[in-house]
Structures are given as C-alpha cells and as structure tokens.
Amino acid sequence: xxxxxxxxxxxxxxxxxxxxxxxxxxxxxxxxxxxxxxxxxxxxxxxxxxxxxxxxxxxxxxxxxxxxxxxxxxxxxxxxxxxxxxxxxxxxxxxxxxxxxxxxxxxxxxxxxxxxxxxxxxxxxxxxxxxxxxxxxxxxxxxxxxxxxxxxxxxxxxxxxxxxxxxxxxxxxxxx
Amino acid sequence: xxxxxxxxxxxxxxxxxxxxxxxxxxxxxxxxxxxxxxxxxxxxxxxxxxxxxxxxxxxxxxxxxxxxxxxxxxxxxxxxxxxxxxxxxxxxxxxxxxxxxxxxxxxxxxxxxxxxxxxxxxxx
Lengths: 176, 124
What we know:
The complex is a heterodimer.
Chain A: H1 12-33, H2 46-57, H3 59-77, H4 83-102, H5 112-135, H6 145-168
Helix pairs in contact in A: 1-2, 1-3, 2-3, 2-6, 3-4, 4-5, 5-6
Chain B: H1 9-29, E1 37-42, E2 45-51, E3 56-61, E4 66-72, E5 75-80, H2 87-90, E6 100-103, E7 108-113
C-alpha cells in the first residue's frame, strides 16, 4: 500500500479531546431526549464535560471539546446550520468566554458551581440576544427572560454540583 | 461525600446573588400585566378610549389629514398617517402597557394601558 502524502499527526491531546467531545455529544443526545416545557429550557448536561475539561486540561481544551460537541451534536440531531445551531453556537461561545474570565476567580472561594452558573447565564444571555437581533426582532422576546434565567440558575447549579463531584474524584491516569 | 461539601463559600454567594437577580428581574420584565385598553389622543385631548377586545378601525383627523388606527384583541397600531417620516407607522403593533406611538406632525397619539399604570421612558 502506498503511503498517503498527507500525514496527520494525532497527538495524545487530540485523542483526549476527541474522547471528551464524544462524551459531550452523548450527553447532548440525552439532553435532546428529555422533554422540555419550553424551547430553550434544557438541562445542558454536556456542560458538565466542559467544566471538567476546563478544570483538568485548561481553557483551550474546553473550547475544542465544546466546539466539536456543538458541531457533531447538531449533525446527529439534524439541525446543523438551522437557527437552533446558531443559537447553540452563540450560547456556547459566550459561555466559553465567561468561563475564560471566571476561571481566574480565586479557586479557594469559587468552585465549579460558580463557573457553571456564570456560564449558564452567559449562555442564555447570548441566545436571547441573538434571538432578539435575528430571529424575533421584537422586545417581546425578553418577556421570557425571568423563566430562562431561573432555569439557568437551577440547571447551572445542578451541573456544577455534578462537575464538582467528578472533579473531587482522582483523575484517570490515562485515557484509552 | 455530601453534595453540600462541594460548595465553596463563593459558590453560595453566586447562587444567592443570582437568585436575587432572577427574583428582581420578574417585576422588571412583567410589569403592568396585559394590555387591555388603548387611548387615542388628538391635540392632547382624548379622542377615544377603546377596550382591546374587538377588531376595529378609527379615522382620526388632524391638521395634515387623516390618521388611521387599527385595534385588534390585545394590540393596536397606526396603519397610516400623513406625516413625512412615518415614525409612528413604523413602530408597528403596540402590545405592552405603557407603549405609545406618537404621530407628532398630525398631533395624534395611541397609548396602551394595562390594569396598573406603568411608567414609560417619557415619564422619567
């Protein structure tokens, strides 16, 4: 067999990101299967993976894992490039930015739960802004803000607690 | 390990702070309840006060001509107006208490009222 001209070097870091992104995609599928009373109110379980990756491997890995999760998740669920995809992308970008800022908070005082709540607020804030600017150009969109913000607080706390629980256990020495 | 042990002091601060923020956002976004009346004014005088229940149209005369106001269940708008810049027409449907469309050149305004009186930006 002739050797391919293009050789892609796959580093351990790449493998780890791929595994973690797979876990995140799996959780987004679970997320999509949970019935929701209102479009936009979702547990966002995949963010648990983002939080764990952020704490263990840094912000750059978290960006990769979230980005791949949005892309692959939208392909699997069939909303790639649909409005839902851009809402999801905007929310993810803003929550990653929030996490990038919030991870510099003193760790002794602020744990994964704080990061999770702040990211959840950034996520829903970004989605509402995009919806207002693009999908529904009327201030009526903001009437649902208290509902969304309340959901962000509740699910942000739960996801943060789960992430904190996972982080409290010793790190796996090596991924398969 | 109990779940509460996973929370650090700052986390409590964030949870309580956000809960307060969410709580205080409710009156900000949901003030005034639903729109149930519209007041049409001409030259500052009340031209008509309408319950926003039925579908109706009003022709209001002013110095430039006739302003056409449409009322539907829960909302009202200015359909046409002789003013040059058409600001009040472009505002579209008014559906929240306190919202107002003013056609200044023709001296006509439409304001939405709810059960409770709310302040709009003009009041400040």
